[in-house]
Amino acid sequence: MNKKDYFSRLQGLLGVSRQELVIVLIIASGLTAGLIYNPPEQSNPGVEETINILDSLAEARRKTYTGTNPDGSINREVKTDSININSPKAKPGKEPKSTIMGKIDLNSASKAKLIKLNGIGEKTAVKIINYRKKTPFRKVEDIMNVKGIGPKKFEKMKEFIEVK
After folding, report:
1. Which residues pair with 104 in a beta bridge?
2. What three-state secondary structure class fits 79?
3. Which residues is 74 bridged to in the sheet?
4. Per-residue pLDDT in tens (0 to 9) along the chain, 164 residues
């Protein structure tokens, strides 16, 4: 059987013209070749580099997470890796204060930032915010007017606060 007889039989079976049969055969051979030939996966160094950068940023975020919720309240479920249980100052159930970079403005600091100050807890931070709503701070010493903050607490935090 030659090519013409083969094409004629296929045309008769499928009920298509010669041109349609040629197109169908080209498409079928392309699909078959595509299934047989499986090229090796190409790695994209840009994607891998981006993934590595995101992983390192996530790790840094995990290590420096302060344990506050978006609204500024303390997330008690967060446990930090940085607690040194051998430290004489470390008390069971107490987390150490985060290191403060720069100074905190008493007239604009959020509750979460105020809590980072030594000796300031959630309740005292709320007291500071309520005080400044009535009377803005004019100098850092004015913080001692807030109930619960005396000279000892002020001495611990004075290098970390400012008034703008």
Report:
1. 161
2. coil
3. 68
4. 677 788 788 888 888 888 888 898 899 999 888 888 876 666 666 777 888 888 888 777 766 666 666 666 666 555 444 444 444 444 444 544 545 667 889 999 888 888 888 888 889 999 999 999 999 999 999 999 999 999 999 998 888 899 98
